[in-house]
């Protein structure tokens, strides 16, 4: 699902890394850290933008890092990536000084994000850049009225998901600008990155819709009303007359909040 998300948002990510390169102008970007790298969305976008860079991809999950390394090998980029298994809740790993740090959808996972931000600050060279990205609106795919089931099914799913996420991830929706400033950063830029695709969707976006809504279905399971559950099942069953890929009103809409900050010189 993360890889599909990367493909669907590729254009927006490329724009964002271009902006980071503009802000870094005059300073070489060679040593990059991707915090909570997952399957490498940021790692690969940054390697493309900064041809002299190598990326240390930090994640607590061996499975994510294995996936990232396999992709790197397939794309001939393995020699520019250092996968590093570390739980940043435990301690900051030995990384060496970084020119650029990227933390996408990962800071809200940290038990103590303020401590991690201070560690990032200490690791960045003066004048180096930190980009923090947090999902503001999780991806939506469906119109309110599907023509069957009770209208508003997807919105109800998101209410349940937001509730579950808020219970498990207390830092979601934090005031990141204040936290960045408190850790010693100066914010250079705040922006919103929106992915908005309308029908007819490319094949990747349809697969992304299946993957995301399928995950929602399994996450919410018994929390869904029987009616919403059967609506979602009908959308996800590929041979159903109501299956997602048969719809001409499928869309992708998501918004990320982005802060680009610097460690003052
Ligand atoms: C939602 S994923 C985001 C992945 C990627 N940055 C992206 O934008 O697609 C969050 C990642 O943070 C990692 N993560 C969560 N807590 C962590 C921790 N304490 N230390 C290191 N990585 C962590 C997870 O394993 C996961 O891969």
From TrEMBL:
UniProt-listed PANTHER family: 2-METHOXY-6-POLYPRENYL-1,4-BENZOQUINOL METHYLASE, MITOCHONDRIAL, METHYLTRANSFERASE
Domain of life of the native organism: Bacteria
Keywords attached to this entry: Methyltransferase, Transferase, Ubiquinone
Any one Gene Ontology BP term: methylation
GO MF annotation terms: methyltransferase activity
Name of the molecule in the record: Ubiquinone/menaquinone biosynthesis C-methylase UbiE
Origin species: Actinoplanes philippinensis
Domain Methyltransferase: 32-128
InterPro entries: Methyltransf_25, SAM-dependent_MTases_sf
Keyword Oxidoreductase: no
Transmembrane segments: none
